[in-house]
Amino acid sequence: MFKTAFYEREITPPLGCDLPGYFNVRPGSDVKDRLMAKACVISDGTETIALIALDSCGIANKIRNEIAKRVSDYTGIPESNVCVGAIHTHTGIPAYGFNKDEEAKKNQEGYFDIFPKIIADCAILAYKRLEESELTYALGNVEGISFCRDYEMKNSTPRTNPGRLNPDIVGPMSETDNELPVLFIRDPKGNPKGAIITFACHLDCVDGTEYSGDFPAETSKQLKKLYGEDFVTVFFMGTAGDINHFNVNTAGDSPDHYRKMGQKVAGEMVRSLAFAEPVEDSGVKCRYEILNIDRTQVSEERIAWAKHNIATIKEVKGIKIAADNTAQDQYDLGMSKSLMRFVENNPEVFEVPLQFIQIGDVKFFIFPSEIFCYFGLDLKERSGAKKRFVTTYCNGGYGYVPTREMFYDTIYESKPGANKLNAEAGYIMVDKLLEMSK
Fold it and tell me: Of 117, 47, 39, 43, nearest to 84 (Cα)?
């Protein structure tokens, strides 16, 4: 019989820390939702795995390794059996990247020293609380809250975030993945302990500079109301590299739109449990492998363009800069700085971690980076797994991973800097994960 335990802990940083996710500095000004680290540890008595999710925009592999080592030192769980995922909230902890502002550096002083230990301790403390548990799997479906963000236009050139109600939009360039897989866990008496869930939508649903775990924070709140304050919801982002919450056929969203999304996810999870099936009691397996993938190539013309922008465009602080053609010069400046950091600070070949975990007959296919939805759908179909999770931004970040057909100057996710790996990366990773699963 499986033994499991959950543990969660607040990791909200000091005010004034830089909120990652955009090109400009955004100091955290308030707390909309407390930021959390959450862990679920599962053991079959011989093999043990730790699944950790944190309210961050990203997670560097170096930090993941630091967390995994501490977990292993305190519990004996192999470092290769530790999965650390960022939910990818754009209003989360500054857990990766670079400092863009001297004031943010001051406010973040000491934070980077302590937060990996706090995150690791969630798994360590869960490990100390392992008890026999009942595991069930359900598969829900959430429609109407996630949309492709790359669109075919009337000029036959696709474009990222072309704007709401744009009359030149022909249609989306890809499907969405509306599946909501749920691993629901109860204690020996049948009381709910927690759940692991995944959904494919970019967590960029909260405006402003208040710390927030985005719609999964609201999902967690709703489930705590139903199952008790000790119920822990561990959320991982699905293949949402080209999927966000913007419905281009509407004029806009209400300020609490992300809460409505979170409530809808929670409601569908609860509904799906009526059809949940027991998880097969056949043990735990895990594989963690490093794959060498060449980086994307950058032309000399593109580098010259970036250097010119950096030299001639003056940065404007205090505005939101994104890939929607607003503040175009500031967007170009941000992209130029991102490209030059990529060119100057990255190797010719990346060491990309992939992970496969199996809990009974439930399979977890675990990507790093921001993977296009196509790859998740393709992997599910080819794997044949009926009980499955496909998660992203786990164990490291290596930019967006688009399909071959989406390398255009008008597609944000394929621009060097935003995209770090070559055009074959997604296909290589899917093939490797399927091989690992066998």
Answer: 39
Question: Which amino acid type is present at position 402?
Answer: P
pLDDT in tens, the chain (438 residues): 899 999 999 999 999 888 887 777 788 999 999 999 999 999 999 999 999 999 999 999 999 999 999 999 999 999 999 999 999 999 998 865 445 567 777 888 778 788 899 999 999 999 999 999 999 999 999 999 999 999 999 999 999 999 999 999 999 999 999 999 999 999 999 999 999 999 999 999 998 899 999 999 999 999 999 999 999 999 999 999 999 999 999 999 998 999 999 999 999 999 999 999 999 999 999 999 999 999 998 889 889 989 999 999 988 776 666 655 567 788 888 888 888 888 888 889 999 999 999 999 999 999 999 999 999 999 999 999 999 999 999 999 999 999 999 999 899 999 888 899 999 999 999 999 999 999
The residue whose two tokens read 């990346």 is 350
Characterize the bridge pairing of strands 192-199 and 179-186: antiparallel
Contact 388, 181 (CB under 8 A): yes
Strands 147-148 and 243-244: antiparallel
Q: Cα angle vertex 258, ends 237, 91, to 5°?
A: 65
Task: Please state, in angstroms and rounded to a whole number, the distance separating the CA atoms of residues 275 and 271.
Answer: 8
- Helix, strand, coil share of the chain (percent; to 5): 30, 30, 40
Q: How far apart are CA 51 and CA 68, in angstroms?
A: 10
- Give the CA distances from residue 96 to residues 88, 104, 354, 364, in Å, rounded to whole numbers and listed in that order: 11, 13, 19, 24
Residue 86: strand pairing partners: 54
Q: What is the DSSP letter of 416?
A: B
Amino acid letter, residue 428: I
Count Cα atoms within 13 angstroms, Cβ side, for 53: 24
The C-alpha atoms of residue 383 and residue 83 are separated, in whole angstroms, by 21
- Inter-residue contact 266 to 395 (CB < 8 Å): no
Please tell me whether residue 424 adopts helix, strand or coil conformation.
coil
10 Å Cβ neighbour count for 263? 16
The Cα 433–Cα 436 span in angstroms is 5
Buried-state track 15-52, b at ≥16 Cβ within 10 A, e below 16: ebbbbbbbbbbbbbeeebbebbbbbbbbbbeebbbbbb
Q: Rounded distance, CA 291 to CA 395, Å?
A: 13
Q: What pairing do the DSSP bridges indicate for beta strands 232-237 and 192-199? A: parallel
pTM (global) more than 0.85: yes
Cα 110 to Cα 106, 122, 135, distances in angstroms: 9, 19, 39
